[in-house]
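Researcher: Sequence of Transcription termination/antitermination protein NusG follows. Predict its structure.
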Amino acid sequence: MSIEWYAVHTLVGQEEKAKANLEKRIKAFGLQDKIFQVLIPTEEVVELREGGKKEVVRKKLFPGYLFIQMDLGDEEEPNEAWEVVRGTPGITGFVGAGMRPVPLSPDEVRHILEVSGLLGKKEAPKAQVAFREGDQVRVVSGPFADFTGTVTEINPERGKVKVMVTIFGRETPVELDFSQVVKA
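Model: Prediction complete. Tokens:
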């Protein structure tokens, strides 16, 4: 018995449906002793909405993929679990070369589980940045409202952006929250 993690292709945007279909098939075929976990890795990110409101949302780390912890059977003769996964509506196949799926390495599994918050300490949601260094932005709130400038530095951990704005004819660096600026 070799329990490994495998990646399977799904139709993009249909990951939840494919997962639900697979979980139903696992129960229907009584394969709880062969297929242990089905995972759609996600992470929490902070998105800035109109009006500067912050919203924490879950984003898929690998759109179009499910990760399955299962016992695939021996090299020559894959077990019934392999066929059940392959025949699940919404799943297009295993990731791997040839007929035999390639298991994920322990490092890959650890990374996926850590980023998903399923292993180790849970990190604060990351801010999703809608702009890059060099982009023109407009300040929408605070003492510099209605100024425009160029992004010179982004600090996603702190949710801050440094913008060069022109004040009285001089370029001046100003540190602002992500919620205070929008792309110009």
